[in-house]
Fold:
Amino acid sequence: MARTPATSTLENAMRRWGFRRVAGCDEVGRGCLAGPVVVAAVVLDPRRRVPGLCDSKMITAARRARLYDVITRRALAWAVSSAPPEEIDALNVHQASLEAMRRAVLALAPLPDLVLVDAFRIPGLLIAQRAVVHGDRRCSAIAAASIVAKVTRDREMLAHHAGDPRYGYDRHKGYATSDHLAALARYGYSVLHRRSFRPPSLFDTIE
Structure:
C-alpha cells in the first residue's frame, strides 16, 4: 500500500464549526497474541505543523520514532492508556480497546471539545466525537495518535523481550508470526499472553 500523508482537512473544518481543541484517538495491538492494546489521544497545535504524518503501519520504526519525538514536543496535549491482557480477556478485545480509548481521552488536560476516532465511537464519553473510517490514513490528529500508540507499545514489548527473550517480542511485538507460534508451542503461554486468543493450531499443545 502506498504511503499517503494524512491531512488536517477534517480538523480545520471542525475548527471552522467552532471546535478549538480537536483530539485524534487511535489504538494498536488489537490483533496480537501477547501484550496490551495501547491507545493514544493527541491534540495537535494548528500553529506548529508536524510534517510527514501518516498511518503508523506505513512507515519504518526509525521514522515513527522521529515523528513521536516531534509530536510529543509540538502537540497541545497527548496521553496514552492501555488495556492489559487480563482486561482484554475479561471484557473482549473490542470492549477493552474502547475502554482504553475513553481513559486516554479523559487523561488529556485540558479536555478536548471534539474527538476524532479511528473507525469507532467511544461509548460513555461525554464529549463530542466522530468516527472516521480509515482515520489514521486521512486525518493528521488520528495519524499522530497512531504513531504515539505504536511507538509506546513497541517500546513496551522490547522491554518485555529483555526480561523474557524466549518469545521473540523484539521481532514481532506479540503478533501471531510463525516464530511466535513456534515459541508458544514450545514454551506455552506466559503472563503476557491473552488467554482468550487461542490460535486453532495450538489448541492441542497449550494448556
Q: What stands out?
A: The mean pLDDT is 94. Residues 141 and 198 are 34 Å apart (CA to CA). The radius of gyration is 18 Å.
